[in-house]
Amino acid sequence: MKTNPIVGQGTPLHLWQTSRQLAQLPAIDILDLVPEGSRAVIIAPHPDDEVLGCGGFLQLLAAAGRPLQLISVTDGSASHPGSRRWPVERLSAVRPQESVEALRRLGMPLHSLKWLRGGFADSRVAARESALIEFIERHLRANDVVFTTWREDGHCDHEAVGRASAEAAKRVGARVHELPVWTWHWATPEDSSLPWHRARKILLSPPLVARKRHAIHAFASQLEGDPRIGLPPVLAPYVLERLLQPFEVVFL
After folding, report:
1. What is the span of the domain harbouring residue 102?
2. What is the CATH number of the domain that holds 119?
3. 157-178 pLDDT, tens digit each
4. Residue 4 is assigned to a structural domain of this protein
5. Residue 5 counted as domain residue
6. Which residues cross the membrane (predicted)?
7. Contact 116/71 with Cβ under 8 angstroms?
8. Given its phi and psi angles, is residue 164 left (phi above 0), alpha (psi -120 to 50 degrees) or beta?
9. Which uninterrupted H or E stretch holds 40?
10. How far apart are CA 92 and CA 98, in angstroms?
11. Sign of the alpha-carbon dihedral angle for 140, 88, 50, 66
């Protein structure tokens, strides 16, 4: 079994801020990646990944009137194992509600945003990867532009969703781009294992970052651990700061 690289406090923010690799990434316009006539499909392993990975450029897509389809693969109910404060039943209900509030804070057009919930088991997506491919394929069109988590992101669900999304997109002829989310935690700034040649920056203005920060704070369950069992928050401050830089990265 692959070792879980998401441990400790991860790579300090200042190392990413001084990264030569990040500094020299070419910038790209999200509206060039999702041209008029195309739909952006965001495939998130858990409720919150859509905001953590692309809460900045989602605002740009919505402002430009691009059609949006969000697919939440799981309900995120396994984020607090063993917690009596955040049991599975509570998380199953709360986490999707947190996503609704976060999307509202981003200014998403909730009246027209299409949102599908896959109902796959949190932390066990890989066991049903074939079923996930078929599920995603049913909801994709040939002119879609898919954004999903990177196939090497470090979290088992993120990787399974990345693989399944890529295969489903291939079957229908859609384009797919991958988003590093937990990568910023475990990777090192000059890490040669990252596909830097495929990486592009989508630049975010301060108001876009501020709204993304506000949206992330809708995920109360993820900002709170359970001290009684020694469970730290999933989204600790040092995790958030790495995800709130003035750009988002996509692997083309």
Report:
1. 13-251
2. 3.40.50.10320
3. 999 999 999 999 999 999 999 9
4. no
5. no
6. none
7. yes
8. alpha
9. strand 39-44
10. 11
11. positive
